[in-house]
Amino acid sequence: MKIRYQAGGRPAANSDTRPPRIVDFPTLDTGKGAAIASLCPSVPGQDFGSGEDIYTVILTTWFPGSIDRIDEFPCFVFIAIPVAGRETLSSPIRKDDLKIIAVG
Asked: Which parts of this chain are annotated as the region Disordered (predicted)?
């Protein structure tokens, strides 16, 4: 899976692509499934209003369907980070605790 960041609605350049490593499948407080993905290399946080680099993102689908088993392509996802920085979130994750930084 490749994540193509499209911050500000611009198509992402290939240098912005980060291969994620899925580390967990939590649930949002809405009942929707999510995936926590680790990024290496990290994403510069200042591009998204954060003073820290982004090493972890939360992914969830735009449309109904499961993120842990993608049956159809294309699969569009919201890419989010915790509002409060790198703190650990526990399931169920409150959607108010997330900031969408891109779509992919």
From this structure: 1-21
Identify whether the C-beta of residue 4 lies closer than 8 Å to the C-beta of residue 19: no
| Cα–Cα distance, 53 to 32 (Å, whole number) | 27
Q: Which domain holds residue 40?
A: 7-103
Beta strands in 1-104 (DSSP E): 20-24, 35-43, 54-61, 77-82, 98-103
Domain assignment of residue 47, yes or no: yes
Nearest to residue 14, comparing CAs of 6, 23, 4?
A: 4
Convert the pLDDT of each residue in 59-104 to its tens digit. Answer: 988 877 677 766 666 678 888 988 876 666 778 888 888 999 888 7
Residue 78 domain-assigned? yes
Cis amide prior to 92 (ω within 30 degrees): yes
| Spatial distance between the Cα atoms of 89 and 57, rounded to a whole number of angstroms | 11
